[in-house]
Amino acid sequence: MPGIMLAANADTPPSSHSEDEIESAMLYNFTRFVEWPAGALGADAAPLAICVLGDDARVPVLEAAVRNKTAYGHPLSVRRLDARANPKGCAVLFVGIADGPRMAGILQSAARAPILTIGERVQFSRMGGVIAFIREGNRIRFEINLDAADRAGLQISSKLLRLATVWRESAPRARN
């Protein structure tokens, strides 16, 4: 796995990168290790849309992290979503911590759509999100809900799964 993904799961020196920068780099790497169903990303030249809900400060940091980058031949683009917006057209939906109270409704609106949902709360994956960032001291880890990924039609690379805590709604288990 590329360097920042491994570094993001290690102790991070306090002055190296901001939490937003580390999570944005991890988010970019997620796009490279998740496969969407055929046709879900549109034509080859169509941008892979990373939508951000509830974290305005994250948008410029994420834009910098994905500038001039691609995933599966698609250029990456970042757009901010209003809380009332439909996530249709988003390949990735990042839900910031500010939208915690509306999380269940947001996840319900994205359910069964080919959208990689990522959140900043440990409960995010337990509520049906695909990936949740988890903070452990000065470490940033992530949990993957395989049942949520299956419902969305997403295939998660075994390389990514090896770095995650893996959770299933039917039989919780950890794999590192």
Polypeptide structure, described:
It is a single chain. With 176 residues, this protein is of the alpha/beta class. The chain has one domain: 3-Layer(aba) Sandwich (Rossmann fold), CATH 3.40.50. Helix content is 31%, strand content 25%. The protein contains seven helices and ten strands. Strands 3-4-2-5-6-7-8-10 form an eight-stranded mixed β-sheet, sandwiched between helices. A two-stranded antiparallel sheet has the order 1-9. Strand 3 (70-71) and strand 4 (74-81) form a beta hairpin. Helix 2 (19-32) packs across helix 3. The radius of gyration is 15 Å and the shape is globular. Mean pLDDT is 83; it is low at 1-15.
Supply the number of structural domains: 1
At CATH level 2, the architecture is 3-Layer(aba) Sandwich
Figure out the total of helices. Answer: 7
Strand sequence of the main sheet, in spatial order? 3-4-2-5-6-7-8-10
List the helices and strands and how they pair.
Blueprint: H1 3-8, H2 19-32, E1 34-35, E2 48-53, H3 58-66, E3 70-71, E4 74-81, E5 92-95, H4 103-110, E6 116-119, H5 123-126, E7 131-136, E8 139-145, H6 146-152, E9 155-156, H7 158-163, E10 165-167
